[in-house]
Write a structure and sequence with these properties.
single chain; alpha/beta; six-stranded parallel sheet; 6 strands; 42% helix; disordered N terminus; HAD-like_sf; PGP-like_dom2; HAD_sf; HAD family hydrolase
Length: 233
């Protein structure tokens, strides 16, 4: 876990139960879930294997270790997980070097949270080398800290990434709003005890207790998040 700007501690917006906002990266803030799948297809094609489109929903949002193992087993490819991880990260770096499109509403939401000094963390299953590249485009000033998938013993869907982010900010997970785009990330955040706003990217996500589903980040602003926390207390 690496701090990108000084943490803002437990400071809370006046009159709000909201203490912090924790955001996923791929498919939530940046439109890159498709990039990962394209790279996986490309890498396995180079190994002589074709990926079934139905596998996309199996690997979306998951840590590279889980996705990589699944694809190796599913295809029977003769490659070690460590070697595959390097190929996938290299391929993804090349993709985002050409373009890094933001999800609709992402830039506006980050600017609003920063303007109101809401402690904010980036929590991703991607590795540190990828997060740092994306942060340079998103703007590291928008995040008090970031948590990478290769920096925690157990990544999503385990709650550890979100628990680590809350601890790093010095806030109560139950008073954090998490924004996620996949069932894997939602499971991680809910297991940590956070309130979740789901913005589905590849696979549908249904509403549930302490979980609100929206179609776009354009529906989410600070007023929305504060109201959500108040309603769910």
């Amino acid at each position: 876990m690496t701090s990108t700007v000084p943490a803002l501690g437990t400071r809370t917006a006046e009159g709000s139960a909201l203490q912090a906002v924790l955001l996923d990266m791929d498919g939530t803030l940046v439109d890159t879930e498709g990039f990962w799948w394209d790279v996986e297809v490309e890498v396995f094609a180079g190994l002589g294997h074709t990926l079934d489109e139905s596998w996309r929903q199996v690997v979306v949002g998951g840590p590279m270790s889980r996705s990589g193992r699944f694809l190796i087993e599913a295809t029977g490819a003769d490659i070690a997980l460590a070697e595959l991880t390097v190929l996938l990260n290299d391929g993804f770096e090349r993709r985002i070097g050409r373009a890094l499109p933001l999800m609709p509403g992402a830039g506006r939401l980050l600017a609003e949270l920063t303007a109101h000094e809401i402690p904010t963390a980036l929590v991703s299953a991607s590795h540190r080398r990828i997060i740092d590249l994306v942060l340079s485009s998103l703007g590291p000033q928008h995040f008090s800290l970031s948590v990478a998938g290769d920096e925690v013993p157990r990544t999503k869907p385990h709650p550890e990434p979100y628990l680590a982010a809350a601890a790093g900010l010095g806030v109560d997970p139950a008073r954090c709003a998490v924004i996620e785009d996949t069932a894997t990330g939602v499971a991680s955040a809910e297991a940590a005890g956070c309130h979740v706003v789901a913005v589905p990217s590849v696979a549908p996500i249904t509403p549930a207790a302490r979980r609100t589903v929206v179609s776009s980040l354009e529906e989410v602003d600070l007023t929305f998040l504060r109201g959500l926390m108040t309603q769910m207390r």
